[in-house]
Automatic annotation (TrEMBL):
InterPro entries given in the database record: AAA+_ATPase, ABC_transporter-like_ATP-bd, ABC_transporter-like_CS, P-loop_NTPase
Annotated ABC transporter domain residues: 4-209
Keywords: ATP-binding, Nucleotide-binding
Organism listed in the record: Eubacterium oxidoreducens
SMART domains: AAA
GO MF term set: ATP binding; ATP hydrolysis activity
Protein name, UniProt field: Putative ABC transport system ATP-binding protein
Keyword Glycoprotein: no
Tagged with keyword Nucleotide-binding: yes
Length: 209
């Protein structure tokens, strides 16, 4: 089964046509890299897959067609199936690490919830008492790893990553890409937009648009 399937997708901004009857199949369990020159629509394509942009055509997620105007289905998929990893981390700067992780936590037992959070942070290499730290006190590399820990807690089936290493140095790029590889090996489908050949080398397949 395909995790994501796009058929005859069209998208334009004003008179600027980004996609014209574009087709793409993303196999379940793959790690797909998308590259291309700036302005070719890589982020737009990722946002269409992630139900963040309207479009014309047919989009299926985990075998189920999703209509652009079906807000209930979009909300359900974003809460339970699709997870995002952004270049700017999409964390709340003035909130604690705990508060940022709690956004996706569905654990009702607070003791178990904290244990799961600490376990996720340990797996991404953020050791020590980080739960009470404010996000703005963490380095860029730490913030991106915290964002990966949040994905682990969300337990989504599909991860969409938009330039996840774009602002990281070589060391942190390697750490984040190894973490994404681990997520993929655990069964998650990953689609990543990147201009970084070193990051793209971790993908199972790469397409250019």
């Amino acid at each position: 089964m395909n995790a994501i399937e796009l058929k005859n997708i069209s998208k334009k901004y004003g008179d600027n046509k980004i996609f014209d009857h574009y087709n793409l199949e993303v196999k379940q369990g793959t790690f797909l890299g998308i590259k291309g020159r700036s302005g070719r629509g890589k982020t737009t394509l990722l946002n269409i897959m992630g139900l963040l942009e309207d479009y014309e055509g047919s989009l299926k997620v985990m075998g189920e067609e999703v209509k652009p105007k079906n807000k209930k289905k979009r909300k359900e998929l974003l809460e339970n199936v699709i997870g995002y990893l952004f270049q700017n981390y999409a964390l709340i700067d003035d909130a604690s690490v705990y508060e940022n992780l709690k956004i996706v936590s569905k654990e009702k037992n607070k003791k178990k919830e904290k244990a799961r959070m600490l376990d996720a942070l340990e797996k991404v290499g953020v050791a020590g008492d980080y739960l009470n730290k404010k996000i703005y006190t963490c380095s860029g590399g730490e913030q991106q790893r915290i964002a990966v820990a949040r994905l682990m807690l969300k337990n989504c089936e599909i991860v969409l990553a938009d330039e996840p290493t774009g602002s990281l140095d070589e060391k942190n790029t390697e750490i984040v890409m190894k973490l994404l590889t681990q997520l993929n090996e655990s069964g998650k489908t990953i689609v990543m937009v990147s201009h970084d050949d070193a990051a793209l080398s971790y993908c199972k397949e790469v397409i250019q648009i």
